[in-house]
Amino acid sequence: MNIETFASDHHLRLKRPPKEFEPGPHPDCPHIPGRRGWITESAGSMKLFVQTKRVGDTLRQTAKLGMQPQGRGDQELMLWFDPCDPEQAKFALQAIKAYRKRSVVVTPELLARLEAARATRTMPFPAQKFYEEGGVGDPCLVTLGNGAAQQGNGRLSVAEQRENANRPGREAQD
């Protein structure tokens, strides 16, 4: 079993090697990332790299499951395990706290809930008018975030007030 089929069978994320240098302790081959380590493939079996504070407990558990230790550090372990053995695979995924693949099932109910949420949204993007008006000028109600000018209450923005004040023969509105 290769790492791609192992990741898809267990619904896990599979990270590809970066094209450029990436600092940190990451492998330069496809791997399954986790919060406490990662899993890579090597010679038909899988290699588990895990960081733990309880190295002795983890080693005893892996010995019971038949996993073979390859390296041991102060707070890290490197172990070989058989991906076809469900107990070893389950322990490996729990040990590294592997990231699951995110998946969303789009249903008509979900789409209806999203549309309802978008329709009831009361606050528009607060800085939209601020950037359209040119930035640092006098703040208007819209730039402060309550959205009063966009809701059609008859008030004019600062830019519209200035524009009306500069027109000859027109009086500025409130």
Specify the structural class: alpha+beta
CATH class of the largest domain: Alpha Beta
Q: Provide the β-strand percentage band.
A: 15-25%
Unreliable stretches covering 5 or more consecutive residues = 146-152
Backbone shape: elongated
Written as H for each helix and E for each strand, in order along the chain, the element string is HEEEHEEHHHHH
Write the CATH architecture name of the largest domain.
Alpha-Beta Complex
Tell me the total number of β-strands: 5
Structure description:
Helices cover 34% and strands 16% of the residues. With 174 residues, it is an alpha+beta fold. The protein folds into two domains: 3-96, Aspartate Aminotransferase, domain 1, CATH 3.90.1150; 120-166, no CATH class. It has a five-stranded antiparallel sheet with strand order 1-2-3-5-4, covered by helices on one side. A hairpin with a 2-residue loop joins strand 2 and strand 3 (45-51). The chain starts with a helix and ends in an 8-residue tail after the last helix. The model is unreliable at 146-152 (pLDDT under 50).
Key features of this structure:
174 residues; alpha+beta; Aspartate Aminotransferase, domain 1; 2 domains; 5-stranded antiparallel sheet; 7 helices
